[in-house]
Structures are given as C-alpha cells and as structure tokens.
Known about the structure:
alpha+beta; elongated
Amino acid sequence: MNINNQIIERIGVHKTALIFLKGFNWIEREQPISDYGIDMQVEIVENGDPTGLLIALQIKSGQSYLEEQKGKYIVYRGESKHLDYWTSHSLPVIIIIYDDKKYIIYWEFVNKNTVELTEKAWKIKIPTDNKLDKISKAKLREYYFSDSNFLTLSTSDTSYANCRRLDYKILVKNKPSKSIIKDFIQRIIERLKKDNYYRNEIPEKALSEKESDCIWLLFYSNILQFKNGLPFCRVAWNRKDIEFPVKLDSGEKLDPETEMEWDSQTTIPDEFLEERFTKGTYLSLIKLFTDEVKKIHNKLLNLYTQYKAKKIDIHTLTKKILLCEEEFQLLLPDELSEKHPPFECIDVNQKIIEVEALIGNIFTITNDNRDEQNKSYLINRYIEYSKEHIVKIRTKILF
C-alpha cells in the first residue's frame, strides 16, 4: 500500500472515530494491533454511563471500494476467511466504507441476513442511505435494545375492587445487560398501561375505561426458570397515590413510580439444562398430543354448538363436558415429563402450556357454581381461545 492510500485509510479511521465520539457520545477503541479484520470497537453509552455493549468495526477507505455501485447500494466483496471470522464473532460486526471525495461514511451489519455468497467468496450490499451520522445512532443502538429480545410468556389480570392490575412473565433472550432491561422496562410499562387484556367479562365491564393502576413484571432468562418460579428480575409499577401498591422487599427506584430488584438465586444445575429432547423427538411427541387435543376440543365445540341450538340444556352440557376431563388429563405423554423441550422449541412449548391451561379452565368453569349465562359465555370464550392456540401450534410445527 502506497503512502497516499495509507493516509486515506488513517483519515477514514479518524473520521469514523470522531463521529462515534462527538456525534454519538460513545466510546471508541481503535485496535492498535491487526485483529484479523477488526479495526475498532465502540461502546454504547447511555445517559453518560458506559454499558459494556460493544460493536466491532472493519473500516475501508478510498474510491476503490466505491467502484461497484448498483442503484442505492455499494457492493463490497470480501474474502471467505474474514466472513467466517466476522459472522462467528462474539460482537456484532459492521463494515464501514469511507468516501474520501464526498466525505461520507457508509455502513452495514455483516451477518447471514446481509451477506450473499458468490462463486469466488461473498459480497454485501451497503445501502447508500446508511450514512454514519446522528440519525444512524438509533439504528445501531437497536441491535442491542430491540424488543425482539423479550418474549411475553404469560399475562394475568389480577385486578381487584376498583384497582386495575396486570402481571406479565417475560423471557429474556440473548443475555442482554441490565441497562438494556431497564430501557425495555421503561418503554414497555408505557404500553402496558393501556393493555386491554381482562381475565373475564366482569373486570372488563367494570374497568374497561380505566388505565392500569399496577403492573407487575417477572423476567426469566430461560424456560426452566419460568417453570420453576425463579425470575432473575422483578419490577413493580404503581400509579401515584394508589391505595394498595405492590411493594418489593429491596427494590431500586427507576423513577418515582417504578422499582425493580435483581435475584441472583436463579441458577439451575448444568446437568439439568442438558436434559433436553432432540427437536425431532420432541416434535413427534407434540404431534401426538395436539392430534388428541384437537379431538377433545372438537367434542367440546360440538357440545357447545348443541347447547346453543337448544338441543341440550346447561345441565347436560355440564355433565358431558366433565366426562372429557379425565381423558384430557391423560393426554400429555409421560415422556414429556422426563426431559425438557429443545431451546428452539420454547415458544411451541409455551403454547402447549397455554392450551393445557385454557382447556383446563373450561373444566374448572363447568364445575363451579356460576350462573348459566356467565358459565356458557366463558366456556365459549375458552373454546375459541384454545382453538386459536391449537392452530398456532400446528402451524409452528408444520403439520
């Protein structure tokens, strides 16, 4: 590389560093020794505090990298050894192209979604709209702070009297840092204040015009923690001046209405984590379960249809529904209690749990002392809900 090219390369590195330092207020750390294609790391800073969240950068400068432009894209072609290293890197990697004529820096993430394999190696299309400036700060930050890192496992309406209260259990993916979780908490609470979930029509009628008074969040890092009631983080939000607020034993304040506490006693032995089905075995067992559940669901639906058509009365409906209960309780294969689902099937397993709960609610409601109108309404609702979940399970496992 001649001296002019070296100078252009150094300008590209310094221009990039300056944007992260001055434009983003993030920390940049140039790699002083060649690191197999990583020129710099940047650390995200939130509210003046380093987060420990890093992004790795490969910086290319000069007109030779801008020769292949197609429409709104700059095409960068790389070597296979670099692609293997970048896509298996512990940090997200972005490729940066510095245009030394227009003084513009372009960027794109290097991952399986952006890379295209070619006969010789690979290429990546860098959008010319992806300019490294203050606007792109949010896009880069979104890699870590995306809501896709959080999956709601269950929602409960625990309202009482005139107090609108909702509880949520949330699975946290990709091991995000505390700063990411705190950011998510503050955003999700604003949305959940207006959540329209109700456990039945009674609180819906009484509280439908009312925003939440209390929100309780439980976070889990894996499904086993969820099943064993071991959240690593608890959050309580209480509307100001609420009469009976939810309190945490040793919470830290995020704001005057929100407190959270961390629990380190959530470790599950490694050997327990390893007791998992292979995906093929698990899905075979689930297919058997869903086939049988669908049969019972059809029985319940047919019974309710007969009731609505006034071919049977409420007492006959109740009696015949309860005849299905023992059959339903024997459905889940014994093998599923021996191991845990593969991690890639956690969402399917959650749907199985929800179907069990929904159909179980049909038997519970049928067996209690509600009046006929309330009982028939809820039986119908749970039959509809369970049908939706059965369809989702069968869709997910492609039967």
